[in-house]
């Protein structure tokens, strides 16, 4: 029996693949490598190059590898860009999820862990985000993730009385950072850590977008969670599903406290040994002061923990990026 990881050649997916293998849940990867890297997939892990929009390919892969479940990460994950590419975002994230569910039904696979996003909440006006907070996504990306959750839940309801009911859960998280393997690092051109690392490597000065927010040091406060912790939670979710144990429809993988952009910049300077004073740029439109999620439900059910300090998050990410040359 195996677990199919859609998007398993990506930064987060590749960590989940490693965590599944370590837990004895044989991973199989399907990825079109539009943003992932085949080199991120560990040797010996079956890899199918292709798009999740190809229902026959996904169903065939599930059958050929005797899959018992899917961890569904594949999609277009750039919230800012989704505003200018809404049709592409919906195709990849909404239609892609529908196709995966249809392929699972064809192949008789009944377990799915969905990689959702805290973007489903939009810009909440509460200090701590809980799972029952109203969903008001503020980008096509956030909308597409919420619709993905709806699709999966609807299929769960539709199959509940059948011989093969769909068992599912969704994991929502914000900013994933660090590295759990020196050969895997975040290559996104839109995430804070890789942006700062690339600027330092190029001899440039990193920027902070606004320092006049209503926070202790004036900079945005967000959830930053280590990728290895994210991967571990996905594995526990898969284990609970396959064991028939109860799970919530969705879990926040939140830090509870959050970190400010200034704190991250200070940690980067401290860990890398590169002394710099970040430039202050104008605020980005729509950026709220603070968005931090609780992880209480996930701690209860998924052994969710923040196992890495800020310096460790920076150090593991920086070492992996430098290792890449």
Question: For the CA atoms, what is the radius of gyration?
Answer: 19 Å
Give the helices and strands as they follow along the chain: EHEEHEHHEHEEHEEEHEEHEEHH
CATH topology of the largest domain: Rossmann fold
**Can you list the strand order of the major beta sheet?**
3-2-1-4-5-6-11
Mean pLDDT: 96
- Unreliable sequence segments: none
The class by helix and strand makeup works out as alpha/beta
Q: Categorize the overall geometry.
A: globular
Number of strands: 14
Largest sheet: 7 strands, parallel
CATH class of the largest domain equals Alpha Beta
User: Terminal Cα separation, in Å?
Assistant: 37 Å
EC number: 5.1.3.2
Family: Belongs to the NAD(P)-dependent epimerase/dehydratase family.
Enzyme class: isomerase
InterPro entries: Epimerase_deHydtase, NAD(P)-bd_dom_sf, UDP_G4E
How are the elements arranged and paired?
Elements: E1 2-6, H1 11-22, E2 26-31, E3 47-49, H2 55-64, E4 67-72, H3 79-82, H4 86-107, E5 111-115, H5 140-159, E6 167-172, E7 175-177, H6 192-201, E8 207-209, E9 221-222, E10 224-226, H7 227-242, E11 250-252, E12 259-260, H8 261-272, E13 279-281, E14 290-291, H9 296-302, H10 310-323
Parallel strand pairs: 1-2, 1-4, 2-3, 4-5, 5-6, 6-11, 7-10, 8-13, 9-14
Antiparallel strand pairs: 9-12
Helix pairs in contact: 1-7, 2-4, 4-5, 8-10
Verbal overview:
- It is an enzyme of class 5 (isomerase).
- Pathway: Carbohydrate metabolism; galactose metabolism.
- It comes from Microbacterium oleivorans.
- Residues 3-254 form the NAD-dependent epimerase/dehydratase domain.
- This is UDP-glucose 4-epimerase.
- The protein is α/β, with parallel strands linked by helices and 325 residues long.
- It folds into 2 domains: 2-175 and 225-252, NAD(P)-binding Rossmann-like Domain (Rossmann fold), CATH 3.40.50; 177-223 and 255-323, UDP-galactose 4-epimerase, domain 1, CATH 3.90.25.
- Helices cover 39% and strands 16% of the residues.
- It contains 10 helices and 14 strands.
- The chain has helices spanning 11-22, 55-64, 79-82, 86-107, 140-159, 192-201, 227-242, 261-272, 296-302, 310-323, and strands at 2-6, 26-31, 47-49, 67-72, 111-115, 167-172, 175-177, 207-209, 221-222, 224-226, 250-252, 259-260, 279-281, 290-291.
- The strands form 4 sheets. A 7-stranded parallel sheet has the order 3-2-1-4-5-6-11, sandwiched between helices. A 3-stranded mixed sheet has the order 12-9-14.
- α4 packs parallel to α5 (140-159).
- The two termini are 37 Å apart.
- The model has no long low-confidence stretch (mean pLDDT 96).
């Amino acid at each position: 029996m195996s677990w199919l990881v859609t998007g398993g050649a990506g930064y987060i997916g590749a960590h989940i693949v490693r965590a599944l293998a370590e837990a004895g849940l044989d991973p199989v990867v399907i990825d079109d490598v539009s943003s992932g890297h085949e080199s991120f997939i560990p040797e010996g892990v079956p890899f199918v190059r292709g798009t999740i929009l190809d229902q026959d390919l996904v169903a065939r892969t599930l059958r050929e590898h005797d899959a018992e479940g899917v961890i569904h990460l594949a999609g277009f994950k750039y919230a800012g860009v989704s505003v200018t590419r809404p049709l592409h975002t919906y195709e990849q994230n909404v239609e892609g999820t529908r196709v995966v569910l249809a392929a699972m039904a064809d192949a008789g696979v009944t377990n799915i862990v969905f990689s959702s996003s805290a973007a489903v909440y939009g810009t909440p006006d509460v200090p701590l985000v809980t799972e029952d907070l109203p969903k008001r996504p503020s980008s096509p990306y956030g909308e597409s993730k919420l619709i993905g959750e709806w699709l999966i839940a609807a299929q769960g309801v539709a199959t509940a009385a059948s011989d093969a009911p769909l068992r599912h859960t969704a994991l929502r998280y914000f900013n994933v950072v660090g590295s759990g393997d020196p050969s895997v690092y975040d290559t996104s051109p839109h995430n804070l850590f890789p942006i700062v690392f690339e600027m330092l490597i190029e001899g440039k000065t990193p920027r902070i977008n606004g320092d006049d927010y209503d926070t202790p040091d004036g900079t945005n406060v967000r959830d930053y969670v280590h990728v290895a912790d994210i991967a571990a939670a996905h594995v526990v979710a898969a284990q609970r599903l396959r064991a028939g144990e109860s799970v919530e429809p969705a879990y926040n993988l939140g830090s509870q406290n959050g970190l400010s952009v200034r704190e991250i910049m200070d940690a980067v300077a401290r860990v890398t040994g590169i002394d710099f004073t970040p430039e202050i740029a104008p605020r980005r439109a729509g950026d709220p002061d603070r968005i931090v999620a609780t992880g209480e439900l996930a701690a209860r059910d998924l052994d969710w923990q923040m196992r890495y300090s800020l310096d460790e998050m920076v150090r593991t990410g920086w070492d992996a990026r430098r290792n890449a040359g």
